[in-house]
Amino acid sequence: DRDTDKKRIEELLEENMVLEIAQKQSMNESAHLGWELEQLSKSTDLADTRKSFVFELNECASSRILKLEKDNQSLQNTIQELRDASLTSRESSLKFVELENENQQLSRKIEKLQSQIEKEKQSNQDLETLSEELIKDKEQLQVVMETLKADKDRQIKDLKQENDHL
Questions:
Q1: What is the pLDDT of residues 56-75, one digit of tens each?
Q2: pTM, rounded to two decimals
Q3: Which segments does the entry list as coiled coil (predicted)?
Q4: What is the SS3 string spanning the chain?
């Protein structure tokens, strides 16, 4: 009986060590998953900051476009006034050419800003997609962590029960 008990105790001790090793591995995995979640959370914060920056940039660009369009309209009105007045002097002719050039420059600036806004909109959509993927990954990692924690708790409970039976 003693030999049998000794063998059983040795088997239980060996099994206990295996379970402890598995528990340590599980805890290491949990810590690593926690770290990954923290990194994902930081990435999500950066994406939110980027979205805010893109939104502000879009607002600023829109404001500049409106200002340039207003300036453009003002120049168009001035050009029309000069045409209406039929001023034939050299000075008015130079002013007209100058205003036409300025108008063309403003038109090019408006086109560039509109192109920038389109690029920023696309970038914003890409960031939103990435953010959604990160949130899904985070949720999956939380499920995995909860599963690992439940397994660890069950293993600890089983070890305690076996220990109590000894």
A1: 766 766 777 777 777 777 77
A2: 0.39
A3: 58-165
A4: CHHHHHHHHHHHHHHHHHHHHHHHHHHHHHHHHHHHHHHHHHHHHHHHHHHHHHHHHHHHHHHHHHHHHHHHHHHHHHHHHHHHHCCCCHHHHHHHHHHHHHHHHHHHHHHHHHHHHHHHHHHHHHHHHHHHHHHHHHHHHHHHHHHHHHHHHHHHHHHHHHHHHC
